[in-house]
Structures are given as structure tokens and as C-alpha cells.
Amino acid sequence: MTDEWPTQGVVEFKNVTLKYRPTTEPVLRNLSFVVKSGMKVGVVGRTGAGKSTICISLSRIVELFDGHIEIDGVNIADCDLQKLREKVTVIP
Q1: Which terminus of the chain has fewer Cβ atoms in its 10 Å neighbourhood, N or C?
Q2: pTM to 2 decimal places
Q3: 67-78: per-residue pLDDT in tens?
């Protein structure tokens, strides 16, 4: 990963499963999708559907239970946390 990362802004969730605690049920289950460069995305759903969880998983506020998230082909779990949070912006 270079200082210019990310260059394209392609975000890919690959079979993401997330739990807030090891003993609880998953909040996100096998979630997979791709947001291509330049796309604008709106996430809608009922209360408790996982909208906010998707956003906080991008900044690794909560670590994934399974699967991974890539930005421009780089697994964000391998990124320096400070650099990741400097480079990724979510507008609520």
C-alpha cells in the first residue's frame, strides 16, 4: 500500500460476518457487494437492519468475525488503523 492509496476507491465486502460480541448472534451475515469507483451509494432499511454496522466496519471500529473488506484490492484488516481512518470517509 502506498501513500496515494486508495487510488480508485473500489470497496468490496466479501462474505462479511460481524458480531458485536463473541457470544451474540451475527449482525451482518455473509454480506457481499462491490461499490465501483465513482458510485454514490445510499443504504436504506429498517431499524436494526445493519446500516450503521456497515459504516463502522469500514473504519474497523468493530472487527469482523469472518470474511473481509477490500478497498482497491487491499484487505483493510492489513492496513494501519490510523492511515485507514485518515483515508476513508463516511457521510451519515
Answers
A1: C
A2: 0.88
A3: 999 999 999 999
